[in-house]
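Posted in: Protein Modeling Q&A

I'm a second-year student putting together a small comparison for a lab meeting, and my supervisor asked me to include a predicted structure for Acetaldehyde dehydrogenase. I've never done this before, so apologies if this is the wrong subforum. The sequence is pasted below exactly as I got it from our records. If anyone can share the structure token output, I'd also love a short note on what stands out.
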Amino acid sequence: MHDKVSATDAALELLAEICADHGPVLFHQSGGCCDGSSPMCYPAGELVIGETDVLLGYIGGMPFYISGPQFEAWKHTDLIIDVVAGRGGMFSLDNGRERRFLTRSRICSRGGGD
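Accepted answer (user: helix_wrangler)
Welcome! Here is the predicted structure, written out as tokens:
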């Protein structure tokens, strides 16, 4: 685990709502195809974590993963999960809540486990 992800209070509030409705969840940082760079939120156990996926850390006690190639590109960046108005990704549990998770970033001086 790399402990390179955090969440705003607004993100933690939305996450708590989603967990109250769906139980435990996990996040996977989207690769940018259909849903841009949105963090996708899935019920725990419904997304197969690949061998190259990297656990960045936990937000609200829920695991947050990113693909290995994305991690290599972003390893000097800390991700901050926030919330903005709008619709979430088609398969993400924030969809239909008129608020969605959004990834912000901060470049950091520490490496990603080099």
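A couple of things worth pointing out for your meeting: The domain at 5-105 is CATH 2.60.300 (Hypothetical Protein Aq_1857; Chain: A;). The chain has a mean pLDDT of 87.
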